[in-house]
Design a protein that fits this description.
The longest helix is centred in the C-terminal third of the chain and has 53 residues, at about 490-545. The protein folds into 5 domains: about 35-250 and about 265-270, MutS, DNA mismatch repair protein, Chain A, domain 3; about 275-480, Rossmann fold (3-Layer(aba) Sandwich); about 490-545; about 550-680, SH3 type barrels; about 685-765, Ribosomal Protein S8, Chain: A, domain 1 (2-Layer Sandwich). About 50% of the residues lie in helices and about 15% in strands. It is built from 22 helices and 23 strands. α6 crosses α7 (about 110-125) and α7 packs antiparallel against α9. It is α/β, with parallel strands linked by helices. The two termini are about 55 Å apart. A hairpin with a 5-residue loop joins β3 and β4. It has a 6-stranded mixed sheet, with helices on both faces. The chain has a 5-stranded antiparallel sheet with strand order 18-17-16-15-19.
Length: about 775
Amino acid sequence: MNNKAVLDIELDVVLRDIASYSLSDEARRYVNPELFSTDESILRDRYLKIDDLVNKLEGAEPLEFFPSLGEIFKYVKETHRDIEGKDIYKIGEFLHATLTLYKFLEKDLDPIYIELEEKILSSLNSEGDVNENHPRLLPLIKKRDEIKNERYRFSLSFISSNRSIVQNENPLYRNERVVIPIYSKDKKSDEYYISGQSSSGNTTFVEPFKLVELNNNVVLAEERIRVEKLKIVHELSEECRNIISFLKEMTETVVDFSFHYVFALWVRRVKANHIERSEEISLIESRHPLIKDKCVPISVRIEKDKRVLVLSGANCGGKTVTMKTIALMVALNQISSFIPASPLSTLPYFDNILTDIGDGQSIEAEKSTFSSHMSNIASICSELTDSSLILLDELGSGTDPEEGAVLSLSVLKYLAQRGRLTICTSHYNQVKNFAYTEKNMMNASMEFDNKTSLPTFKVLENIPGDSHALSTARRAKVPKEIIDDALLSLGEEKNTSANIITSLLSKSRTLDRKISECHREKQILEEERKKLEKREEELKKELLNAEKSGYKELNSYLRESRKELENLVKLVKTGTLDKEKTKRVKNFISELEKKEDDIKKDIEKKEEEAEDDYSSLEPFKSGDEVLCGSDKTHAVILSLDDKNAYVLFDNGLKMKVKLSSLLNAKKKVEKEEASVSSFTSTIKKPKLTLDCRGKTLSETIEMIDDEIESALLSSLFMFSIIHGYGDGILQRGVHEYLKKNKFVADYRFALPEDGGMGKTYVFLKKD
């Protein structure tokens, strides 16, 4: 990807923000613009890995940072000396981070690495020194302390017995040895060892021969401790050397994993979505990830046959930001397969992004604004391919307006013939008019509110925009006299013409906006239809057999009831029950068997009636209002074939149903069909989706309990719960309850296009 483009669209800033959450320094460097790809298989693989991590991150603890081991690998390769304690401790931290990663991935780490991690972190501190509480040091330290105590007691005793010659009441420490200061005039070399003298010569530091022995014993004890510490470090060093190959392999794994991990964190942070590839640019509610506060979402559609988009409008109205946002969405999509926009958005793939943004002035390089623009355009033309995205900001500016406009037209014609898509911002009317005359070009503008004299930062498709120079000058608090003089200079004719254009433009905007809204609504409905068809395919078998399965459940219940009651009869034989109770039990069994036969006959009757009703029905057609199923739910037919119809219910749900289950809503239903039995009519019909937004956790759990019961009785083993995003309290409570429910086999977040983390699929146990 072109390096200038990376800087111009601020992709480098976005990637640095994403990379700041990396698990290692190596991984941080891996998040770069070079990941930009056109390989669909690579991008698909990234999407699957990132999406999997997005789901795993819910409720998970943050992973730990992996320290860099590069210098340690180099040291081990070049020398056979022991690894330093601080580097061993770093390896311990690396192993600890590895353990947390394995737990996150629900994988088992070899016990050898777990034991070594525990041994390192319990043996050493962060400076690499052996901890004083190490089991192997404790007896040595205890022995040393005993000698020190003995030494101290002896010193005090000596001082007490020789107060006339001793200068201090307490012993002193010189070179880690205890000495006793005495007056130099009283020293006797045959009674003690002289270790030194003060600078004045008045004090002599001595060690009585017993104290000499005790000092030496302390030194020897300290040496034994030091040697033991070296042994401990040596042993840990050898163990670390033995796992170097694993550490190298793990370092590479962390780099690969961290890339997907930081993007998963970013997806959750900015609420990004996976989108489909298309030759048409259709960005819906896209948000620039660097604009945190008061970000106005950008929606824009560029048809696949368009090669040039001319973006116009007021200064500071958002033209450049809009252009950068489109390019940034393209770049992020071809790096991570996720963008901060609606999941209904679509984007094509581009092989490169080429830009001319900014004035590029340089006194040092002796470049003017115009010459800088021309240099950039020359460079763009040399790198151009038929799959390139080109961004041109203020094309033709910085020179004579007439020549700049003519040059702009020539540049756009050239790029339209050779590039995939060119987006340019311009104030030239000639350029806007030219875009209207060319089939492969289109206009768009940034909306301007004439009432407030402020831009709204919304894109208006197929509408050129005014520069609103005077309004901009007025907002900048240019003196009123200047504004008034400028208005007079425009002339009455031009002012009148401007008013007419403004009026016509307003009407055009209203019409185009409605067309655009209709198009988007159609697109959204089409996407919803596709999603529902996909979901319907998965549930088709269960939905078509729901009623029959319900009867099977009932039959199963009756059989179980018989078994239970027969067991009671057996108890009679043992004397537990009396004869009267036994007779009552047998009568109940007979009634249950009769009930079962009645239900079977009722089912057969209903099926015959349904066939008769279907044969007598007038042909249905698209748009007919109908009543569906035994509960006579109102719906409208969208399309139909020989046996089935696609209907839209009043709640917005689309479903495929049999024609035999439909009645014309405009015809009065003379007689309500009876329920199959009083037993089955009491069963609540399961819902496909529970909307729990706005409910308390207790209310939600009650709804879930009812849904599970209804679903199991109807042999429906999957439903969904809409809990929303919010603060995540309701979602966490729902997941915690599902985790403990004995009837729940599994649960997971919905697909990004179907609600993402605001919705949870629930899968029930089938046995």
